[in-house]
Write a structure and sequence with these properties.
Length: 261
């Protein structure tokens, strides 16, 4: 049934039937034995042709979607486009990797800058606080010397009242830490309370520290606790480097306040 001879006959018959309209038996009388099966064969071939047409249509649709024609030059153009697209994709991938690395680096920088910013904000607040102190004590008319503002009183009071005056202004009676400060405070040129008091057998400063033998400027033979009632320190022989005396807290003296900045 599927021999070439048979196929030729079928095609010839088809041409005869569809092309000329003449009867098959007239043109090819010798294959009359196969006449009965021809309609089935024709129907089968028609279906095959219909299937092929459908596949062809499908391929055309796919081709049009892909934007490529299937002739050799179009295919070559498609390959070139594919290769170009691949190169661009590869370049994009490198850029993505490079941008990823840059992003990580930038994130590290941002984190570093955040820490720096926090540190700068802290410094700014410290400086702002110091500036506020400066403005405040300048406005009080206090004198600035080596990191502190000083107030030299113009009236007299006992040791505690003198101290209260200072603490009410955010300061305290002066703590004399070294020779510079000793010389600066002697310039008061008056007997004046300082922030020194007896605590049992020790002398202490109002900041809680104990009097150091390396920075003590007692006048000769002082402190002597004269009359057994001298428990506070004062600038006394102010013309001398060693000028302090112990005196009763209730005495009325000038005083010196200090505010560290
Ligand atoms: O001679 C030193 C002596 O002088 C005065 O007492 C007489 C002082 N008194 C007062 O300042 C109140 C003593 O402290 C001082 O030791
Ligand atoms: Ca004394």
């Amino acid at each position: 049934m599927t021999s070439p001879r048979w196929m030729i006959l079928v095609c010839f018959s088809l041409i005869s039937v569809f092309g000329t309209g003449e009867s098959l038996t007239i043109i090819v009388p010798e294959i009359s034995n196969e006449q009965n099966s021809l309609p089935a064969i024709i129907a089968q071939m028609s279906r095959a042709i219909a299937d092929l047409n459908a596949s062809h249509k499908k391929l055309l649709v796919q081709q049009s979607r892909s934007g490529c024609n299937c002739n050799p030059s179009s295919l070559q153009a498609c390959y070139s486009q594919r290769n170009l697209a691949n190169r661009r994709l590869s370049s994009c991938n490198s850029q993505v990797r490079s941008l990823g690395a840059q992003r990580s680096s930038l994130l590290r920088q941002v984190s570093g800058l955040r820490s720096q910013y926090a540190a700068v904000v802290k410094q700014r607040d410290v400086l702002q606080g110091q500036l506020n102190v400066f403005v405040r004590y300048q406005n009080y008319g206090w004198k600035y010397y080596r990191g502190s503002f000083y107030y030299f009183s113009t009236s007299k009071a006992n040791w505690q009242a003198s101290r209260n005056y200072c603490t009410a202004r955010g300061a305290d009676l002066v703590v004399i830490n070294d020779a510079f400060e000793n010389n600066f405070t002697r310039e008061v040129k008056r007997i004046a309370w300082i922030g020194l008091y007896r605590s049992g057998s020790n002398w202490r400063w109002v900041d809680g520290s104990y009097l150091s033998s390396r920075a003590s400027y007692w006048a000769p033979k002082e402190p002597n606790n004269s009359g057994n009632r001298e428990d506070r320190g004062e600038i006394w022989l102010y013309n001398n480097i060693e000028n302090w005396n112990d005196a009763p807290w209730a005495d009325a003296n000038y005083w010196i306040c200090e505010k560290k900045v």
